[in-house]
Each structure stands twice: as C-alpha cells, then as structure tokens.
Amino acid sequence: MGGGVIGAASAWRLAAAGCNVTVFDSANVPNDRGASAGESRIFRTAYKEGTEYHPLLKASLNHWNALEESTGLKFLEMCGGLTIGREDHPDVAAVITSAQQVGADIEVLDAKQTRQLYPQHRVDDDEVAVRDAVAGVFRPELTVRALRTAAETLGAVFRTYSPVLGLRPTASQVHVEMADGSEPFDRVVVAPGPWAKAFAHYVGERVTPKELVGVWFRVLDQEASGPQRMPIAIRRHESGGFSSFPMLDGFSVKILPHHLPWNEVDDVSDLSRFIDPSFVRSAERLATDLLPLVEPTAIRVSTWSDGFTATGVPKVGISQEDERIVFATGMSGQGFKMAPGVGDLVVSAVKDGSTEAIPESFKK
Question: Of 85, 263, 301, 338, whose CB neighbour count within 10 A is largest?
C-alpha cells in the first residue's frame, strides 16, 4: 500500500528477493502530493539524527548506485553537503559528533574558508561549515520512476489510482479492500506516507500529515549555483533555518524553510496550493540575508506533504494487530535518502518475520 519512495523502494527490494508484488496507490506513481515531489531532495551521511541511521544510509547509497546503473536513469548527483552555523549550535554539534563516531568523511571549515570556497552563503565570523564529502541531491520524481521501472522489470504490478479503503484480515490471508471489491494477499506492507491516518491502528502510533513548502529564487551567478559548485546545505542561523538545494532547472535554487510552521493537513488529496504571503515574505527575507547570489524575490512556491510521528523518528516494524502486516511510515522528512535501506528492512520482516536489523528507535 503506497507507491511513494518508501513503497516503491520496498516493492523493488521485495521483487528482487523473489516475492510477487502488487503496489496500490491512490494517485499516480510518482505524483506531486506526497513526499516524493518538489524537484529536489537531499542525500547526506553526516547525520545529526544519530549513528543508528548510518548503516541504512550506507546500504541505500549502494542501492541507489546500482539502480542508476540498471535503469540508465541519472537521478542522484553527488555534490557534497554543508551544515552551516555556530559550532555550539545543537544541530551542528550533533553532525560533528555523529560523523566522528561512524567515521564519516567530514571537514570542519572556519568562516574564512567557507566564504572562499562557498560564496553562495553569507557566513558570520563565529560560524563554521561542516563539509560532508558523501552527500548529494536527488531528482525525486525521476528517482521514484526508476524504482518503479526496476520493480516492474522484476515482475511487480503497480495499480495506480486505486485507493485502499481498508484491510480485512481473515484466517488465511489479508484482504485489501477497495471501492470495486477486495483482493487477498499473504502479506501486506503499509507504506502510505502522509496518507497514514486511516491505518494508525496497524502502526500503533498516529502519523500526522504536514504541508511542506519549497521556495525558489532566481540565481545571479549560474556557474556558481549548479551542483558542480554548490553543495546541498543545512543552514542554522539566528535569523532562521533552511535546507538549500543547488540549481537543477537552469535558473533557480530552492530553499525549504525550517523555522516557519509546517501546517497539519486534514486531507492530503486536498493539499492547498495557496501559501500565506507572510510565509513567502519571511522566506524572502531569509534568502536575502543568507544567500547573496540569489534575487530577493521568490519566483516559485510549491507544496507537497509528508507524514510525521510525534518524535520525528520513522516507524518500521510488524503490526501488533496482525503479524502478516508490516508497516514503514512516519518518515518525518527523513525517508527519501534511505528508502532502499528501509526496503531491505521490509524484506526481512515480510520473508523472515525478523525485525532484528531495524533500528531500536524505529520500533518504539
């Protein structure tokens, strides 16, 4: 259930493991509503969220490389990554500590070095940049297309525009209920992304859909703004925070503001395309202050959504309601980069009933 990046990656890994796979999605695969939209996503290995993510990230990078080779689609460009802020900022300190613990390839640059190497960012004298050598930028829609292609090549079937209304476990199988009837399966993987509300009882925790807003700015220096020169970045500053992405469309860079509210969404299918002007103005002020090589007026604003847990930690495991139901949801903005690794966890849960490889925090 679900053909976003987690569902499509799980389908690919399950099909590669010899399973007969059918994927149901209420929209197309890919689509512009869920967490696989928005033109760009980040891959990084210097990960402030903790060391237990590192094996998933390492495994996922190997899978991403193999997927590009097998499909001939180039969807991940390794451009390096930066985390910029004061060295005592909790997020910056956590990146350094986590990277050192797992031996990730990082370098801490002082303000002068950062200005010389990365003029795309305005940096205060007391700030540093943590450079992550193994980081890059995804084209998310193309990534999901590649996952679907690889899964279909291995025999998976994608049933798009087929919303699942519920699950009905019986003694022998689990029935997937749809408007035009039901279909029985031996195992069901619940990977609905921001559409997870209706299936909370199988997950054991409420997953809240939230609206994410990307804001694009025209670049003043195209040569300095592409992925060859501009890494992905996480910015932490007293005036606000954001993720920034290099130019992929030939004329603009995107930021995803972190200090502005990500509103809850009642129904992802009715995701609003209207953004409050105060949000856009705040993003413009932030870009004007911290990104000197962009024009101060936004030229594009776009919305998509993701499902968030209360703790911000993904949920992966076997349902206590029925051991034939496996869930992978509530990625909380973290799922894209590690989707194939999560797919491997799903394979172990489906085929072997094992949750041993799942990080402990994902099970809580």
Answer: 338
Do 92 and 9 share a structural domain? no
CATH number, domain containing residue 34: 3.50.50.60
> In this structure, are 258 and 273 located in the same domain?
yes
Please state at what angle helix 54-71 crosses helix 5-16, rounded to 10 degrees: 70
Q: How many residues does the chain have?
A: 364
Res 364: pLDDT: 79
CA distance 362 to 229: 36
Which residues, including other chains, have CB under 8 Å from residue 87's CB and lie 6 or more apart?
A: 93, 96, 108, 127, 128
Question: What confidence tens digit (pLDDT) does each residue in 143-159 have?
Answer: 999 999 999 999 999 99
Separation CA 31–CA 42 (nearest Å): 18
pLDDT tens digit sequence for 314-340: 999 999 999 999 999 999 999 999 999
Torsion sign (Cα): 261, 267, 271, 274: negative
Do the Cβ atoms of 24 and 159 come closer than 8 Å?
Answer: yes
Same-domain pairing of 97 and 126: yes
Enter the tokens of residue 82: 């930066």
Whether residue 315 sits in one domain with residue 271? no
Burial of 88 from C-beta contacts in 10 A (0-12 / 13-18 / 19+): exposed
How many domains are there within the chain? 2
> 223 lies in which domain range?
81-133+208-308
Residues 295 and 175 in one domain: no
Per-residue pLDDT of 40-88, as tens digits, reads 999 999 999 999 999 999 999 999 999 999 999 999 999 999 999 999 9
**Average pLDDT of the segment spanning 243-268:** 94
